Amino acid sequence: MPVRVDAEARRRHIVDAALRLIVRGGIAAATFRKVAAEADLNIGSVRHYFADHESLVVAVATEVGDRMGQRLTRHPAPGNGDREAARRHLLAVLAELVPLDEERHREAVVLLEVIAASRLDPAFGPVVRQMAAELRQVLTDAVAATGTADPAAAAAHLAALVSGLSLDAVTPHGSVDRATLLTVLERHVAIL
Predict the structure, then answer these.
(1) What residue numbers bound the domain in which 113 lies?
(2) Tell me: the pLDDT tens digits for 72-111?
(3) Residue 56 forms part of a structural domain
């Protein structure tokens, strides 16, 4: 009798293997051959789910974005107009977006790899633009609840801050630690 495979579970397994490879060696490390070995599958299984390298990398970036989105849903916006509660909510949202733990560190590495690759590979452009738009919207909504006069401008500022902090936290460029990340976020929220 043929073995039944849960297609969605297999696809997730392949994406997780590719994510680990990207974290360790960048996008170029996530070849079908290496992903198959990392997932303990044959290369045909990887090809069955992904037409090419780019579609696999886009699936990894999308998975990272989905994970971040799921974490953000754990922080519902306060609905009572309390500015301090809104600031605490904004800080909680920002904390989900920077590499404060190993999971968020891996996610930041993947996102930075895909963002950098999108400069030269148009296949990554749509997912990068979509994630940037979603980030701006989440931040705009969270900032608006604080009563800030221009929430879109403040959200753009915070998006740049998140990107810069993430870059510094995951590269030798800055090597920012968790305490510094939180302090910088707290200071920026306080001045809104």
Answers:
(1) 61-190
(2) 989 888 877 788 999 999 999 999 999 999 999 999 999 9
(3) no
